[in-house]
């Protein structure tokens, strides 16, 4: 996975981002991915992810 960030202003409107919870052998993980771009994803333990109410 690349650690290079792309500024939001440089992203076209054709991206499609999805999130899911993966029940891995070492615990649940949040996965966020741009499904229109190869290798554009991130994953983190669910316990470390911010809840929706935290983002408001």
Structure description:
This protein has 56 residues and is mainly beta. It has a domain at 28-56. The chain has one helix spanning 52-55; strands at residues 17-24, 27-34, 41-45. Strands 1-2-3 form a three-stranded antiparallel β-sheet, with no helix packed on it. It is globular, with a radius of gyration of 13 Å. The mean pLDDT is 82.
Furnish the topology, listing elements before pairings.
Blueprint: E1 17-24, E2 27-34, E3 41-45, H1 52-55
Antiparallel strand pairs: 1-2, 2-3
Write a brief structural summary.
This protein is mainly beta and 56 residues long. It is built from one helix and three strands.
Highlighted features:
single chain, 3-stranded antiparallel β-sheet, globular, mainly beta, 38% strand
Counting helices, strands and paired strands, the structural category is mainly beta
| N-end to C-end Cα span | 28 Å
Shape: globular
How much helix, percentage-wise, in residues? Answer: under 10%
> Spans of 5+ residues with little confidence (pLDDT < 50)?
none
- Report the total helices: 1
Report on the biggest sheet.
Answer: 3 strands, antiparallel
Main-sheet strand order equals 1-2-3
Report the count of strand segments.
Answer: 3
Percent of residues in beta strands: 35-45%
**How would you classify the quaternary structure?**
single chain
Average pLDDT, to the nearest integer?
82
Structural Rg: 13 Å
- What sequence of helices (H) and strands (E) makes up the elements? EEEH
